[in-house]
Amino acid sequence: MKRFQGLALLAVIIALLPLALPNNYYYDVAIRIGMNATIVVGLNLLIGYAGQISLGHAGFFGLGAYASAILTARYGWPPLAAMLSGMAAVGVIAFVVARPILRLRGHYLAMATLGLGIIIYMVLANESAWTGGNDGINVQPFSLLGLTLTNERTWYWVTGAVLLGAITLANNIVDSPVGRALRAVHGSEIAAQVAGIDTARYKVRVFVVSAVFASAVGSMMAHYIGFITPQMSSFFHSIELVTMVVVGGMASTYGAVLGAAVLTMLPQLLTEFEGYEMIVFGLILMLTVIFLPRGLLPTIAARLRKTG
Fold first, then answer.
1. CA-to-CA distance for 47 and 23, rounded, in angstroms?
2. Domain locations in the chain?
């Protein structure tokens, strides 16, 4: 019931927010918040519920973006077919690499996922014949059934619908036996194995799901902005995504949305610190872990319960 109430509240906010958006710039910020939130909702399943770190998720985001760009521009595929094919390909890649990587724990797992992200970035940057290299590549507008998404207001509603769908899927996973298994793995993997849970299978499943979320949003972002470069799969972007999960609140779906909103708007508010983004994000992450270890939303909710 509480999750349904949270989803209804978010739907109301999405429906009413355009009343407070005076121009396309604010629509653009809202769209980016929605897209980042969708990725982070999936990443939160991996980090927050399963307790598995990933420092290379921007790589899956980049693969989805380039799949849409290349398939539509070079081979004339419909954008939706290109997006779905990119999601399927990323799902297969994530499944293949997940078993060996997710056998690792702690900082070994962090380094392995970091290495995966760097490999994807280097491939996208160096295979210039396919990707355009560091010069980037143009992406065609997204069209479906003769309708083309060309303005921010249309993209706003599409992004909002996708975010609500992603949250619904994530909530269903959390409330299912899969979600209970993931929480058991997070609590104690050894205890979960003793209880008969196939921990490797569940970790692989949630890794694939979170990667597919990132790929889908990568495709959307590519069609939305119309031009992409390998920088979208950089290590810094991966750190941004992890920071959104931690700041918003791990194991909190709506906390992930809040974290995405706060940290997507932050660069707009700190333009005078351009070039120091990594330092600012690192400082925010450090302060959150020290003073708000549960994240923003769980901490706020706990304090409201005490005062109530």
1. 36
2. 24-268+276-307
Does domain 24-268+276-307 sit in CATH 1.20.120?
no
Structure tokens at 285: 């992450």
pLDDT in tens, 129-149: 999 999 999 999 998 877 888
User: Quick one: tokens of 222?
Assistant: 């590519």
CA gap 112, 53 in Å, rounded:
10
What global pTM score does this model have? 0.94
| Residue 146 CA neighbour count, 13 Å, CB half | 0
Contacts 24+ apart (CB under 8 A), 154-162: 155/27, 155/31, 155/224, 156/18, 156/27, 156/30, 156/31, 156/34, 158/220, 159/30, 159/31, 159/34, 159/35, 159/38, 159/220, 160/14, 160/34, 162/34, 162/38, 162/216, 162/217, 162/220
What are the pLDDT digits (tens) for 37-68?
Answer: 999 999 999 999 999 999 999 999 999 999 99
Amino acid at 195: A
130: which 2 tokens? 């396919």
Distances (CA, A) of 20 to 17, 26, 31: 5, 9, 14
For 148, phi and psi rounded to 5 degrees?
Answer: -115, 130
Each residue's pLDDT tens digit, 70-89: 999 999 999 999 999 999 99
Q: Which residues of the chain have pLDDT under 70?
A: 1-3, 270-275, 277, 308
pLDDT value at position 272?
64
